[in-house]
Structure formats: structure tokens, C-alpha cells
Amino acid sequence: MCHEFCICRAGYILNSNKTGCLKIASKLYDDCEIDDQCLTTIGCSKCGENNTCICAKGYHDVNYKCFSSIALGYRCDRNENCVTPLSECKKGICYCKEGYQRFRMQCSSSSNKMIISQLCSIFMSALIASKLYDDCEIDDQCLTTIGCSKCGENNTCICAKGYHDVNYKCFSSIALGYRCDRNENCVTPLSECKKGICYCKEGYQRFRMQCSSSSNKMIISQLCSIFMSALNLIKNDILIVFAY
Questions:
Q1: Lower CB count within 10 Å: N or C terminus of the chain?
Q2: Whole-structure pTM over 0.70, yes or no?
């Protein structure tokens, strides 16, 4: 639909060049061309090499949802986090299920003697980051305990692409007009999650994908000015694509 400016229909987003619209993926393994097609609706995902939505590095698929991959002995929120076969989340930590023992970061029926040997090697392993902006050398130091993160150029843990920091936690960055789960998802300043969609807060209005306190009269005036400028350019055989 095109009025004063052109926007993508519901369920679509702009492509990388802002010259066309791409369908937003609804689930893992849907077709894609860019990461944002996946990230808009599927947390901790990306567009893979086969042009389908897959879980991002450090995450794994459980029933078509991406969960952070947590190793044995580290903090977890739910059973789906524990990536080691035969493990589960007990009291916020990934442990082997009853009847199995930990050996070389796997769950097996090995003897206690073998487990003690493995525990000794764990103490010699590299330190794991506990929060954003801790020092790191590789992504796994961050991903083990911090969801949707990576080791940045300055060798500190930062949020991965498509995510932003709110109180030292990474949340998926959702733009105005798209589906959200909580206020922290809405990345636009002065926006919030209302009924599952990112909107501007009360007293603010949406203009050029930002929330502004400008009056309706000012906004209409700006839109009219944009529209008239576009008409003048079209007369000169120049195609203008407006991204809203």
C-alpha cells in the first residue's frame, strides 16, 4: 500500500538495499536472504548458508525454537538449555540425569574414579565470562553464560548482531511496528511493547521509525514536504524509494 510514502506490508521487511520487501520467517528452516527475516520473529537465529533460518552460534534447536546451549556445570533456566545428551537443568545448573555421571563434559555411566580425573582437568580450563563486558578471547567464553552474545573487537563480551544490552542482558532488537515479547525488545528510544507490538510510548508519535513529541500538525507538514519533494524528483525521471 502506498500513500505519502511506501512501506512493506505486514509480515514483510525491507531488503538490505531498501529497494524491495522480503517475507518475515515464521519458524526455523523457513527460507531467507538476510538475518533480519529470521531475527524479527525467531530469537537467537540467523539466515544460514543454505538460505534458511537456523539457530545462531551458541544456540540449538529444540522443537523449532532456539535455546542457548549450556554445558554441564553451568547456569541454566530450563531443561532445553542443557545441550549435553542425558543432561537436565536442576536448581539452575546443568547436571547429568539420575543414573548418569559426568565424564569429559559428557554424561555416562563411568566410575567415580574417572569423574574425579575429569574434575581435575576442569579446574585447568579457561575462565568463562560471567557478565557482559567481561574480558574474552573467543565467543564461547561469553556464550556459555550470556545469551545472544559474542566476543567483540575489544576482547570483551558484547551482545551479538540483532541484540542490544539492557541492564547487562542481551535482548533481541525489535523495531517499531514489529512483534515483541517484552519492553526490553523495543530498541527504539521512547518505545514499549504493547499487546505484543513495539509502539511509541504515550505522548509520543511515530515518525521515520522514531518516536517524537512533535505535534500532528508538524508531522503532517513534514510528510507533505517529503511528498512534494518526491514529485519534483519524479518529474526529473529520478526514482526515489522512501523507507519508513
A1: N
A2: no
